What we know:
- The protein is an alpha+beta fold.
- It has a domain at 50-181: 2-Layer Sandwich (Alpha-Beta Plaits).
- It contains 6 helices and 8 strands.
- The protein has helices at residues 2-13, 15-18, 43-46, 70-82, 124-131, 144-153, and strands at 53-62, 87-88, 91-92, 96-100, 115-123, 159-161, 167-169, 171-177.
- The strands form 3 sheets. A 4-stranded antiparallel β-sheet has the order 4-5-1-8.
- Mean pLDDT is 82; it is low at 1-24 and 188-198.
Amino acid sequence: MKKILLTGLILMSLTSVTSAHIIDEGNAKEFASSPKPIQPFNYKKATQPNTKKGLTRHIVLFDLKDNISKAHKDEIINRFLALRDTKFNGRPYIHNIEVGTRNISREGVGKGYDLAFIVTFLSRGDLNFYVGKPAIDDPKFYDQNHENFKNFVGPFLKVGKNPDGSDNPGVIVFDYQVLNGKDSRSNNSNSAITFPSY
Length: 198
């Protein structure tokens, strides 16, 4: 039940973020997001499991093409869930993957997204290894299975245009580290929140 509530709260908190899916000149800055690559000399350190330990979430929403078949949608889900079996240096590095296959929100701000995934890691190092390109270019330091998945799912995503004319694929990603490294229902409700340094 806690996972269901947490998932609902996270997705509800993203309603303001998903409004960026509306393309107009007024929100052009939303589309100015650019990759934040890690410098090659930092690849090894940035992908270590002890780099910035703490619960780390990677939320992905997909806006699929209208004519996608149920079989293709099921294959997308199954391939994504299979990523949890990937190992880095002989150990599983993905703590958990959750999937939502139907937006049940009654708020009317779903913006057409069809699938939601929440991937949980135990450190930002594990997240960095997972993300790979465009943050890391050396295949020794990223999950090739995830890279293969990104190449597989791309043709199934809707593609719009940004105000600058660049492609706007039907995907939104939001990564964060849980404040205090715990969920909000931890046993010590009076504990102070420690904000991460940036």
